[in-house]
């Protein structure tokens, strides 16, 4: 099997489960050495026990696909832990080819709230105020800190920074969840701003959007809550990151907002079941 990222080093933040786990698997099957962070080394998370998943699980599956996995227990709300990780990468490799800013505490509260769908869709004044910090402290700020401490390593490699975001950041109609809309918009703007600083050093920074992803949390939703006819596996997003990282011209995309399904059409990769999900960009741009 072709291993286009053999010899490359990647860091995926928040990879115990969900999209982060899928990104790690996608990079692993492309042959990369993938450092995967999370708070759950083994067993089940005390914070989100409903969805399970651990770093050991992710790394075991990643290595079965042909990559090399390095589990790193790291709470991205603690800057000292993130700096220590960057120092470790520097000592062990001297550079970083791919940073995927995925860690996201924004959904954890949902698993603790009764009637989580109603809470998520409620007017902002009826939602828990903690939702803001979940989105920004364990999300946007964590992405910024990881980018800042890893920047010298990325510059050494002419690397790639990917902020995992979503269409909510571009939406101009409807009643989107307010902290979520602002957080995803911030991630997109951060990628554009990082690109301005990193472009002269040959480093690419982008935002990347999935469609509806069949994560563990999404699959816990009540029957009928989602239409999975055009959904994606978490690993599909990993294949998108791998394709982008393997493109020697990725710098030409710096500062852009990209969509995984559109990259699949361009680069010719498929989801794990052989399907090619359809981009939902137009639906969101039209207020869907």
TrEMBL record:
Coiled coil segments of this chain: none
SUPFAM superfamilies: NAD(P)-binding Rossmann-fold domains
Membrane-spanning parts: 144-168
A Pfam family matched in the record: adh_short
Record keywords, A-Z: Membrane, Transmembrane, Transmembrane helix
InterPro entries documented for this protein: NAD(P)-bd_dom_sf, SDR_fam
Record PANTHER family: DEHYDROGENASE/REDUCTASE SDR FAMILY MEMBER 1, DEHYDROGENASE_REDUCTASE SDR FAMILY MEMBER 1
Record protein name field: SDR family NAD(P)-dependent oxidoreductase
Species of the source: Deinococcus rufus
């Amino acid at each position: 099997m072709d291993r286009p990222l053999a010899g490359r080093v990647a860091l995926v933040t928040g990879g115990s489960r969900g999209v982060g786990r899928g990104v790690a698997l996608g990079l692993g099957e492309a042959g990369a050495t993938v450092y995967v962070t999370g708070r759950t080394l083994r067993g089940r998370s005390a914070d989100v026990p409903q969805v399970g998943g651990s770093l050991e699980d992710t790394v075991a599956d990643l290595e079965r696909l042909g990559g090399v996995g390095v589990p790193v227990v790291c709470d991205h709300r603690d800057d000292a832990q993130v700096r220590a990780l960057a120092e470790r990468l520097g000592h062990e490799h001297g550079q970083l080819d791919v940073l995927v800013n995925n860690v996201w505490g924004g959904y954890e509260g949902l698993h603790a709230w009764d009637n989580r769908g109603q809470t998520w869709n409620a007017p902002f004044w009826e939602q828990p105020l903690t939702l803001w910090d979940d989105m920004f402290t364990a999300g946007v700020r964590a992405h910024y800190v990881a980018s800042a401490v890893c920047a010298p390593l990325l510059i050494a490699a002419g690397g790639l920074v990917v902020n995992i975001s979503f269409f909510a950041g571009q939406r101009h109609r409807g009643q989107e969840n307010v902290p979520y809309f602002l957080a995803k918009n911030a991630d997109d703007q951060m990628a554009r701003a990082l690109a301005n600083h990193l472009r002269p050093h040959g480093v690419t920074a982008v935002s990347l959007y999935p469609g509806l992803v069949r994560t563990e949390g999404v699959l816990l939703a009540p029957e009928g809550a989602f239409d999975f006819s055009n959904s994606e596996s978490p690993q599909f997003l990993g294949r998108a990151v791998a394709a982008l990282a393997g493109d020697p011209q990725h710098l030409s995309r710096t500062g852009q907002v990209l969509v995984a399904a559109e990259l699949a059409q361009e680069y010719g990769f498929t989801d794990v079941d052989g399907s090619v999900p359809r981009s939902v960009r137009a639906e969101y741009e039209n207020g869907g």
